[in-house]
Structures are given as C-alpha cells and as structure tokens.
C-alpha cells in the first residue's frame, strides 16, 4: 500500500514541499518550517483543504 502524502506551504517564506503523513505530527501540534523555521500549527501549513483532510484521517 502506498503511503499517503500531503503538500505543505509555509505561510511565511512560501516554501512548498510534499511529505508523507507518517512524518508529521497531529494537525493541531506546532510545526517548524525546515526553510525559515517559522512555527505555527501544522494545519496552517497545509496547501489545500484536501491535504488537511488527508492528514486528519490518519490522526
């Protein structure tokens, strides 16, 4: 079975990338941008509502 992936977009530096949901904390936890180190709730990094829904399915 393929791993589910989500697209992320930093609201501060506009870095975008894709990662598996297994590599991420819960959507309400703090997350740090690997580029600029901005800290926000992970849900704020989701590129689309569908990405957020995908992440929440695995919480």
Helix-strand layout with pairing:
Layout: E1 5-9, E2 16-20, E3 30-32, E4 39-41, H1 49-57
Antiparallel strand pairs: 1-2, 3-4
Domain DUF7836: 1-59
Organism: Natronoarchaeum mannanilyticum
Protein name: DUF7836 domain-containing protein
Describe this structure in words.
With 59 residues, this protein is α+β, with helices and mostly antiparallel strands. The chain has one domain (5-57). 15% of the residues lie in helices and 27% in strands. The protein has one helix and four strands, in the order ββββα. Strands 1-2 form a two-stranded antiparallel sheet. It has a two-stranded antiparallel sheet with strand order 3-4. Strand 1 and strand 2 (16-20) form a beta hairpin. The longest helix has 9 residues, at 49-57. The radius of gyration is 11 Å and the shape is globular. The protein starts with a strand and ends with a helix. The mean pLDDT is 95.
| Domain module tally | 1
Shape field:
globular
How are strands sequenced across the largest beta sheet? 1-2
Strand content: 25-35%
Q: Tally the beta strands.
A: 4
Give the SSE string: EEEEH
User: How many helical elements?
Assistant: 1
Average pLDDT rating: 95
Low-confidence parts: none
Query: What about the largest sheet?
Result: 2 strands, antiparallel
Structural class of the secondary structure composition?
A: alpha+beta
**Helix percentage range:** 10-25%
Provide the gyration radius in Å: 11 Å
Distance between the termini: 18 Å
Work out the oligomeric state of the chains in this entry.
single chain
């Amino acid at each position: 079975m393929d791993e589910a992936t989500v697209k992320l977009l930093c609201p501060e530096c506009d870095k975008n990338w894709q990662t598996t949901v297994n590599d991420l904390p819960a959507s309400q936890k703090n997350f740090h941008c690997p580029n600029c180190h901005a800290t926000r709730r992970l849900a704020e990094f989701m590129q689309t509502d569908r990405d957020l829904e995908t992440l929440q399915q695995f919480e």
